[in-house]
Fold:
Amino acid sequence: MKAMVLSGFKPVEERPLRLQEVDLPVPGPGEILIRINYCGVCHTDLHTVEGELPKMALPRIPGHQVVGTVEQMGEETSLFHRGDRVGVAWLYSSCGRCRFCRSGRENLCQEAKFTGYHVDGGYAEYMVVPENFAYELPDDFPDEQAAPLLCAGIIGYRALRVSRIKPGEKLGLFGFGASAHVTIQVARHWGCQVYVFSRSEEHRRHALKLGAYWVGAPNDMPPEKLDSSIVFAPAGEVARQALRVIDRGGTVALAGIYMTPIPELDYEKELYFEKALKSVANATRQDGVEFLKIAAEIPIRTDIQIYPLEKANEALLDVKHSRINGAAVLKIG
Ligand SMILES: [Zn+2]
Ligand SMILES: [Zn+2]
Structure:
């Protein structure tokens, strides 16, 4: 099969992914083989190929927003049939036994494996996944529209919950890429007033189109204090700004897997009066199931830019430079 393979960590400008012919993976017990139609491109893929996350074993095929159809079932499988449409997200497996797994927090499992990071992912024609970690996708979404829901959407949904935002409250979103453009649709559905902070004029326009109440640059002060904020930008100084714009008792959720150091905080201005700062680490299958249900109810519409598989480097470069309105998606099948 064809795959875009990472053999060495490099800035994406140096085209770290190479199109290669690799062996078709074989599903083991409990696993299914998926023929991939589309795979979303996530900011995390960029951190992965550039080596900003703890380094995993190479070579590796990235990609964790996979939409495809079941091609073959391994032994001891029972959930899917050949031809079923399925999705694969970032959480590839968890141990199921540790105290985190047993208390509904498999996102924190220390033995968790992540798609396109510990195991090969979706920048390829096929992949295998444990059937318990594959998602049934709502019929309402065409494949290419569904792909960005699987990480941008699910992580954004978890970030909303971590931010403790309630219906009708004022929510700040810092950075307006793939995840924020889905998250705003959930927040608007809950009747929240959404304030969007972005350096990109193009992204601010996109936010207004999706119903933002107010838009500004990352350092602008909004006209009123906000109840909660979510930081999607991987920049530590933005986290500090997000703390400044929330009101007493508010929460800032940091949605990224990677962030530059957060500058020194001023206790009085930025943390006092019971402000909370909380990171979002991965997501559980429960988050995925809940979010996909809500996504179909709203219904969420994703804005996408499609690239052929062999242009994965170019897609990552456009993500890096915020040149995409919405999400980048690779067309494979
Ligand atoms: Zn576990
Ligand atoms: Zn992701």
